[in-house]
Write a structure and sequence with these properties.
5 helices; two-stranded antiparallel ribbon; about 55% helix; mainly alpha
Amino acid sequence: MVKLNKIYTRTGDDGTTGLGSGERRKKYDLRIAAYGTLDETNAAIGIARLHTADDAALDAALARIQNDLFDVGADLTTPGKGKGPGGARLTVTAAQVEWLESEIDRLNAALAPLRSFVLPGGTAAAAYLHLARTVCRRAERLIAELKDKPDESVGAEVLQYVNRLSDFLFVASRYANGKGERDVLWQPGRNR
């Protein structure tokens, strides 16, 4: 378990931060940007949850995702076969990806069919879930770029999880919009 007694350490005053393996990297390093963007995704989900408390199943799924995002971040902070602070390396699993897929299927089964692209909006919960989705997509792009670097490593499940998460957040936003009935639809060329 992580134990944080002191919040400031001054070790980052030189513009670096520590990975789970103890290695120091610049704060603008691509790996740091990737898991930092996952942290932003998690914060946006936290805001969305202020508006999902009336739907126990959706809120519980979002709570689980928030916890899983720390697993994804832990996986990213320990590149390669490095060990974490407690010795074991925490990695994202196929079961976590499969759970997201089952949640997407569960929510999607209740939705009205899509007839156009959906604009972010509708209910507050849906709008914040769309925000979380767009931040998650940015994290996915960063992780994909990191994975393509020859001197870096990213587990396949990390990218799979983040890809499924953005899909989940899209479906969840529609679900929070009265199961799609309150979706704000794009009307191509409407304002020409």
